[in-house]
Design brief:
Strand content: 25-35%
Largest sheet: 8 strands, mixed
Length: about 210
């Protein structure tokens, strides 16, 4: 319980222009929880100390909450996380390593991996292709891009664009959120961009 109290405090102790994205993340979990009235699988990419209690914000026991990260299973962040299952793997080669994850998830979330870690363009493409394949038909993909971090990427070609995403997905909405939600810094610059996306169908090997 001490761990839960500390991590809840991490979500609620929000300072101006610092981690205000967590308020939106928390609200997104709640919106997902309200959306489903039958058992579904949700894949959350990335395990850190601050998101160890994200499962609790869903407030829906029908949602099987799966986390994915490259960390060892005995890492403290993993051991202390509230989840129904942990997968040790990179999203860049998930289906190559674990083919059974194909067409399994109704929701995939990435709030601190894609668009935060500087993946090569090929790794970004592989990640998005894996997410697309993991999702069920009309599955929901919610992505948070860290604009300030991407601005500091060594190779500017690795910055993720709308075109990268819209190859595999199309815009959708969730609750009050539609298509893209931009969180701005007090100086007017973009801090974070949240994308709300549905899986595109595939016909004859083409994404439609």
């Amino acid at each position: 319980w001490k761990k839960l109290v500390l991590n809840y405090d991490m979500w609620f102790n929000i300072r101006k222009d610092y981690n205000t994205d967590r308020l939106i993340c928390r609200d997104i979990y709640k919106e997902i929880g309200k959306k489903f009235d039958k058992e579904i699988y949700l894949l959350d990419i990335g395990v850190e100390e601050y998101n160890n209690v994200s499962k609790l914000f869903l407030e829906n026991n029908l949602i099987k909450y799966i986390q994915l990260d490259i960390k060892d299973a005995d890492h403290d962040d993993v051991k202390e996380s509230e989840n129904d299952k942990y997968i040790q793997c990179s999203i860049t080669n998930l289906l190559e390593k674990i083919p059974d994850e194909n067409n399994k998830y109704s929701v995939v979330l990435s709030f601190g991996v894609i668009g935060y870690i500087e993946f090569s363009k090929n790794e970004v493409n592989n990640s998005l292709k894996n997410i697309h394949a993991c999702l069920k038909e009309n599955g929901l993909f919610i992505l948070k891009l860290d604009n300030k971090t991407m601005d500091n990427f060594k190779n500017k070609d690795n910055i993720i664009t709308d075109n990268d995403l819209l190859k595999y997905f199309e815009f959708t909405k969730l609750g009050q959120y539609s298509s893209k939600h931009v969180l701005k810094h007090s100086d007017g610059s973009n801090l974070y961009t949240f994308y709300f996306l549905n899986k595109k169908s595939v016909q004859n090997g083409k994404y439609n």
